[in-house]
Amino acid sequence: MEQTSSDLELSPPERLAVLYAPRRLQALWEGFLLLDRRLADAAREGRDPLMIQLRLAWWRDRFEQPAAQWPLGEPLLTVLRAWDDERAALRAMVDGWEARIVGEDGGTELGKARVEAVCALGRLSGVRPDDAVRRAAAEWLGLDPPGASPPILPGGLRPLVILRGMALREAAGRPGGPVREFLAILRLGLLGR
Description:
Blueprint (H helix, E strand, L loop, with lengths): L11 H8 L6 H17 L6 H16 L10 H6 L6 H16 L5 H17 L6 H10 L17 H14 L6 H14 L2
Helix pairs in contact: 1-2, 1-8, 2-5, 2-6, 3-5, 5-6, 6-7, 7-8, 8-9
Protein name: Phytoene synthase
Organism: Novosphingobium fuchskuhlense
């Protein structure tokens, strides 16, 4: 059975990462991660490029409008309403997914857009994005190799610490399994490294 975009949900590590954000910021993180999954599903390889562009155009049109004008029938838009002041970052993610699938940039624009969306999430969280935030986001997304020491991030960005740490564990081929993964998330969530 084909997965529809309404069936998309966060992976268990992503759900745990979101829970490490302060309660008032959890919806921001959830919306960001779900949107990225939704856009990836819309731009899934093997689909007709015209259909991909039509699906992404719908999202692009939404993010060009103020959140007050968004349709009420799309649950993800309800979660993303708090992003109203940072809609441009969400729109850039749409453009990035389109460039990756129907363009020829190999994902460069998407990588930059995702890093900037994390910075926008930081601003919405009351955190001024700096080089440490950008570096952590780039390392999480596999755009940059990990630095000698993990960046130190404020508590509102603890989900980024977890996502980065789990991505680096996976890239290093560390043995996984649910229990080890859970313990790694606990350590990252509590200690930040």
